[in-house]
Amino acid sequence: MKPMDSEVLREQGHIMVDFIADYYKNLEDSPQDFPVLSQVQPGYLRDMLPDSAPDHPEPLKELLDDVSKKIIPGLTHWQSPSYFAYYASSTSVAGFLGEMLSAGLSVVGFTWLTSPAATELEVIVLDWLAKLLQLPDNFLSTGNGGGVIQGTGCEAVLVVVLAARDRIMKKVGKTSLSQLVVYASDQTHSSFRKACLIGGIHEENIRLLKTDSSTNYGMPPKSVEEAISSDLAEGFIPFFICATVGTTSSAAVDPLVPLGKIAKNYGIWMHVDAAYAGNACICPEFRKYIDGVENADSININAHKWLFANQTCSPLWVKVGTLINALKTNPEYLEYKVSKRNEVVNYKDWQISLSRRFRSLKLWMVLRLYGAENLRNFIRDHVNLARHFEDYVAQDAHFEVVTTRYFSLVCFRLVPVDGDEDKCNERNRELLATVNSTGQIFISHTVLSGKFILRFAVGAPLTEEKHVTEAWRIIQKHASKFIHKKKY
Ligand SMILES: *Cc1c(COP(=O)(O)O)cnc(C)c1O
After folding, report:
1. Where along the chain do its domains lie?
2. Element (H, E) at 314
3. Organism's domain of life (predicted)?
4. Which of 219, 298, 427, 484 has its CA 20 to 30 A from that of 351?
5. pLDDT at 481
6. Separation CA 283–CA 460 (nearest Å)
């Protein structure tokens, strides 16, 4: 037996593709067999598997039986058409084929030399995507910027914090990390705090500015400006603003135009975290939400969230050189010569890791096998389904839509009775638990201004109108039970 044998690969690869195709078919045709939120208890798997690895080979068929019987029950079915929690992690046939090709070729393009095509395709495909997003020229490799595919949004935010820190340290000369200050809203993704801490920024210098319903939870530019002025007066060095387009809680949008002006005035790096909603900006009607990106220093989207690019794929665009200045290393064993040395990209200097997957292949396949117009329509379909759900909520007096919806997320809740917010929170919490315990749908929650809120996020690739209608029926059914019981 050899670890790689093309005939075994052919035979078993076909079996695996059939297995995966059946999975998707069954998710659609037999939803009762696939509770969307896994209903297993912690530790369930230990009793089902042996204590140690086998000494001798086992047949693939037996293994796949185990997947069906032991693993799949322990999955939360993110690709189920009735998955509406968090944000989706959208898959597609093209994305899957791209993953398969990338896994199959298994090249490691850390420098241009180690696979010229892996590097050059990434540069080109990220220019394509930048054009679909109408990003300014200074984020294109043909301008004075360029893109890089990070593994995740968290990694994207981390590397730009490091690049911004490098830029400010070089500018102000020797300074103490304790002087450096960053700004974001209290709705910013938790990855920002983690990135700052890894970057040595002091926790007490992370200014998370308060938001409320008056701006639909977007970051108020006035608070940013006031915070910067007061920090400067106290001798701090403001160097980074993280603006979010489509926050994780409620898909709020920070106003990039005024924030960008502030960042520019004070020479502060502005990053735009558009992990979820940035994908929608390939549609002209949503592009306005990233207006102002011209004044940003970097922007990232998660193509694995809502551009059908299967886990994981987080394109990040920056001005040329900025990441390299902070992250470049030059060990002798990676040295090589090309004729025009300065014209090649070495992606190892744009990221944390050395090794990297050939992810651009997947993005290239998604863009080519669907084309921009279909991708726009996939996104529009999801937004329309969310609108549909929002209409249902708005028509039921027991419920309310809590925030203005821009994309495919609806934030809603059972309304309070007699102004009793505590009891209202309790009922919504109970409704969430009940609905999810049915296994028929999976939704998630957040808290905004002390209110416990239910989140209904459309984005799974199999979701159709009938699934949204059914989800609303299930929510209403379980709500009505205690609406009546508790004399609403
Ligand atoms: C999902 C998300 C992230 C985190 O992205 P990962 O790829 O999971 O690391 C960061 N910011 C926002 C706004 C997100 O929606």
Report:
1. 100-367
2. strand 314-319
3. Eukaryota
4. 219
5. 80
6. 18
CB atoms within 10 A of CB 196: 24
311 close to ligand 1 (CB < 6 Angstrom): no
Ranges of beta strands (E only) in 91-133 are none
> How far apart are the C-alpha atoms of 49 and 268, rounded to whole Å?
54
Q: Out of 3.40.50.700, 3.40.630.30, 3.40.50.300, 3.40.640.10, select the CATH number for domain 100-367.
A: 3.40.640.10
| Ligand 1 atom nearest residue 276's Cα | 15
Report how far Cα 420 is from the mean position of its chain's Cα atoms: 35
For 405-459, the pLDDT digits (tens) are 999 999 999 999 999 999 999 999 999 999 999 999 999 999 999 999 999 999 9
The CA 397 to ligand 1 mean position distance, Å, reads 34
Atom 5 of ligand 1, residue of closest alpha carbon: 153
pLDDT at 439: 97
**Distance between CA atoms of residues 107 and 112, nearest Å:** 12
DSSP 8-state symbol, 294: G
Q: How many A from CA of 275 to the centre of ligand 1? A: 5
Residue pLDDT, tens place only, 90-136: 999 999 999 999 999 999 999 999 999 999 999 999 999 999 999 99
**Is residue 314 within 6 Å of ligand 1 at its C-beta?**
yes
For residues 36 and 198, give the distance between their C-alpha atoms in angstroms, rounded to a whole number: 35
Chain segment 145-159, per-residue pLDDT in tens: 999 999 999 999 999
Full DSSP string of 69-99: IIIGGG---TTSTTB-SSS-----HHHHHHH
Asked if residue 277 has its Cβ within 6 Å of ligand 1, the reply is: no
Percent helix, percent strand, percent coil in the chain, to nearest 5: 50, 15, 35
Left if phi > 0, otherwise alpha if psi is -120 to 50, otherwise beta: which for 467?
alpha
Residues 6+ positions from 452 with CB-CB distance below 8 Å: 413, 424, 425, 426, 428, 429, 445
How far, in Å, from the CA of 165 to the mean position of ligand 1? 21
| Interacting residues of 253 by C-beta distance below 8 A, sequence separation 6+ | 216, 218, 244, 245, 246, 247, 277, 289, 406
Distance, in Å, from the CA atom of 75 to the CA atom of 50, rounded to the nearest integer, reads 20
